[in-house]
Structure formats: structure tokens, C-alpha cells
Amino acid sequence: xxxxxxxxxxxxxxxxxxxxxxxxxxxxxxSNGLDSAVRGFGAVLNWIWIALIxxxxxxxxxxxxxxxxxxxxxxxQWHLYAIGILFGLGYAVSHDGHVxxxxxxxxxxxxxxxxxxxxxxxxxxAPFVWIIFTNAIPFVTRSYxxxxxxxxxxxxxxxxAIKSVIILAFAYLALAVLSRFLRVCAFLFGVPRPRAS
Length: 197
Hints:
Blueprint lengths: L9 H7 L12 H17 L1 H20 L4 H24 L7 H4 L4 H36 L13 H31 L8
């Protein structure tokens, strides 16, 4: 049987991946401050995944070794997932790790791609963030006023607390989007003034 050898050039693969075609927009004073806040909070929040893994392992061990489970701990798993995913949206925007159609974008000029980014923020992302944020406020305040708890016996109290994560996560996403928008504007219009590298 002939030898089958696969020769992979990982640097070449990385260069052709979506990050390889990402635009590096100029930084501004305000965008740097926003990026620092978003990335700093995101780095701290990343520890939630460790807590989630430990909680899952603990729940599995209790179920199979002790023959018991606690509804509150299972609900805590769902809540940690929700927190991680919701805050992950802003983190992805900050790190330019969100999904794009790179098969098209890789053939466009940087200016055209910047205009697509500019219009995408104004037409898609900003209205989406605004709608979710403004509708989440009454959603959370009603839950708080009702002192909503889990419907499951033995579930977690203070349902409003996990619902309030929607407000916080979309405020966090708004900061990341604002930073990105400022950087795109600096690239396209020179306002705000780009920082010298």
C-alpha cells in the first residue's frame, strides 16, 4: 500500500481563513478605551466557562455516583450558558471574530469592505441591539415586580437576575459595536481622528 502523506502549511491555512482577510481599521482614542473595557471584562467573564464545566461534571457525578440531582444546579448550568453566549456576542465583535461571507469579501477592496461594515452596523446591528435592549427592560422589571422564581420545584429564585443579563450583555455589545463603528468611521472619513501607530 502506498504511503499517504498530507502536507499542511498551517500558516497558509491561517492566512486564508476568515481572520486572514479581516480589515484592521485604525484605532481612535475612544475606541481604544472601549476596546480595553470590553476585552478586559471579556477576559474576566471567560472564567465562566471553567465554572460551567465544573458544574456539569459535578452534576454528572452526583447523578451517577450518588443517584441524585438538584434542579437548582441544573438551572444554574443553563444560566451560565446564557451568560457566556450573550456576553460572547460583544466579545466576538471586539475581536472581529463574528461570521462573515469571506468568499465574497476577500475579493473586495478595503474601502468597499469598510462601507459594507459601516452600513451593516447602521442598518443591522445597531437597530437589533436597540430593539433587544429596550424590550428587555420591561421584561426584567416585570419579572422583578412579580418576584418571579423558577417554575420547577427546587429551582432557582430571583428569575429577574438572569433576565437582567440580557440588558447587561446588550449594553456590552453596544460598547463593542460603538468601538467598531468609530474605527470604521476613522478609516472612511478620518473622523474621529485615527491615532498614530
